[in-house]
Amino acid sequence: MNIQELTSGLAQSVRSSRPEASIEAMREAKKGLLDFTAASFAGRNDSGVEKLLNLIEGEGGVPIAPLIGQGKKASPSQSALLNGFIAHALDFDDVHSDVRGHPSAVILPALIASAAARRDGGRFLGAYIVGVEVMARLGESIGRHHYEKGWHNTGTLGAIAAACAIGYAEELSQEELERAIGFAAAQAGGMRVQFGTEMKPLHAGLAAQSALFAVKLAQTGFGGSHTALDGKQGFFSLYGDLEKAESTFLSNWGAPWRIVQPGLWFKIYPFCSAAHHAADAIRKLVVQHGISAGKTDRIEVVFPPGGDAALTERQPETGEEGRFSVEYVIALALHGRELTAAGHFNNEPIPQNIQAYLPRIHRIYDAEIQPDPQAVPKGRFTIVRVFLSDGRVYEARVNCPMGAPGNGLSEEDIKEKLQLALQGDERKAASLVTAIEQADIQSYLSHI
Amino acid sequence: MNIQELTSGLAQSVRSSRPEASIEAMREAKKGLLDFTAASFAGRNDSGVEKLLNLIEGEGGVPIAPLIGQGKKASPSQSALLNGFIAHALDFDDVHSDVRGHPSAVILPALIASAAARRDGGRFLGAYIVGVEVMARLGESIGRHHYEKGWHNTGTLGAIAAACAIGYAEELSQEELERAIGFAAAQAGGMRVQFGTEMKPLHAGLAAQSALFAVKLAQTGFGGSHTALDGKQGFFSLYGDLEKAESTFLSNWGAPWRIVQPGLWFKIYPFCSAAHHAADAIRKLVVQHGISAGKTDRIEVVFPPGGDAALTERQPETGEEGRFSVEYVIALALHGRELTAAGHFNNEPIPQNIQAYLPRIHRIYDAEIQPDPQAVPKGRFTIVRVFLSDGRVYEARVNCPMGAPGNGLSEEDIKEKLQLALQGDERKAASLVTAIEQADIQSYLSHI
User: Fold this and answer.
1) Which of A199, A395, B104, B121 could form a disulfide with B224 if both were Cys (CB 3.0 to 4.6 A apart)?
2) CB contacts, 8 Å: A224 with chain B
3) What is the pLDDT of chain A when averaged over all its residues?
């Protein structure tokens, strides 16, 4: 294949994929769907949901696609938007280190909105595996500067990935899929300045909605570029690094599938994954040494340079902003709060005593410290160092936090996450688990 | 004002605007609305319209906002999308040299979809003036590299401008407008690789739709950044040039209004404005010297470097692609075709004899030639040089094409454009003209 033909090459790779033949990939896809469902039910009552529901109800539309946890339906486009928001509302959904963002919160809402999924769902899990593959490769090929510059990868990469996923589910022709990729690319957007606000999770919903629209445009014969990822004015040139993409984007497709290796990272905490290393470290110190806020003078949090780029809030005022604050997470733990509880991360003001504590926590960057070869994400670590008032100093280092691949949640852990999210509705939890285990998408859709 | 506060400064400027007090600006706004209406009716039967209508009808929605020339209504969001497409479908709508794109095809569909416009329309024309002001300033401040890199300014700048226009019409608070600007910025997209396809005009519709959604999110209290244009990770940094924006974006707001100076450019030809200089030049040569395709060996078209960036097609295969081909435009004129006729620019194949003629036409770039101080756009010109088979050589230079500010269409010319677009339905044309002259937006909306 001509390395310059990224768009047609992507369409070919997607169309010739047979992910259903991989037992491992299918197992991970089922875990991914289970975790997505847990994260979505946990976020179903977020205050943003009602606002979006009001807008959707004002617009009207044919109610044929489910809205997770709402007990009602909406148009496919509206369901893609709202389900993407719900899945990502608490930042409790999976991340993927190649993506540097949230694949399932875009891809699965897009698939749930697709006519093929509603019709029979036969290619649903395969399409999800393909979508993760595309999004991981986009994330890797777009280059690290993309995120660091200020783009929100979930938004900017999600629409193309989800369009490929739907394209696989609906068996688009080569020609249709090339155009769908272009339609999605032309709608790519999302900015990290929205982190800590309701707009951040809505980026996931917008990307899912754009993907669905892209596929529908392609299916209706709407005219568009067949080469939107390619060349000096294409997607990679505009948003990232064309040269890198030409050398890496499509090599070794599905070998192994990216949903397996490096794999999805399922969260045990409802906040940004970049603070999970520190969360594990401080919990360990609290348990081992019985330390608490009152006994500490100063906390240092050591990152490799850039390792805290997603943690945009140093002095958050609400729990929602606190999802992006390592200071807030550490302060919560030192005040005896349970970091797994979503209630600390809603849009209520942060208690005065915790806000007052935040300035004691200092970020340090150290380029000399060697990352662990097994670190997740690659090259990342966090060291938390606590200076007690009595002169003692303790520290803990975490290279691979709980939930991350290599230290991952078991299927049982994820089922527990789902039960917790469903607040004890065990019957519903059991129905969902069974539907996912049996890959019965019709049954799954009828229970969300 | 702190020059770094571009978002709050923009919101302040929009909210404190009183464009209705400027007789000149209001006159230009009425001309702009008239020309937009003409371009839209001319494009109402474009083949893309039916495809989009099918998608819209499949989605359903409360039909309360008009679809231009369709005799039916749709949801506000759907009307913003489709009307934006219709207005820009033929590339027959106005451009603005500061924008380097199409302001009215985004701003007016967004305003037509706004609840305030449907309720009374009192601030409609003022809001349009404000929208053009914002889009012109965004275009100037984002820097020329934005377009040259491959972004489509109509899409990338349109959503923010149109959100400000609706924000003015609906009298958003400072705080709401800041968030609306951020919601629009986070949806900014559009790529020049889509030029010559149906997706190009859809960028206008998508920007209008994003603007409407941005304002609705703001009104419903949805949380978002108040500073999305600012700082190292804000809109200007991501898409353009923050430093330039900080020194130019908000200075001398409305003095004069950009809709007056440099003013909108109303097209007499239904193709990309970058080919209008050459169109005027070749028509002049044909009339003065009676030349035609059969008598010519070679044609040279001389541009300043980059002056043909929008003209992406050198060997177009359809009339639609031909909208972005100076070669096609010149070849048409030399084959005796009327360049003002939209029929040459639809998605039919280009006749074989005209395709075969295109390779005789050569582009040349000359950085030595002095642009005329009155040139439109600034720094632009085109020279067409014809080498006849009998050895004679003729040339014509155009600095400011017909329709451009300084050589603009009169109100009568635009009325004629409307009548032509309405194919002789003089009663409808008269109703629309009267409604616009009287700034009676209710009546206007009932006649489109």
Assistant:
1) A199
2) 194, 197-199
3) 95
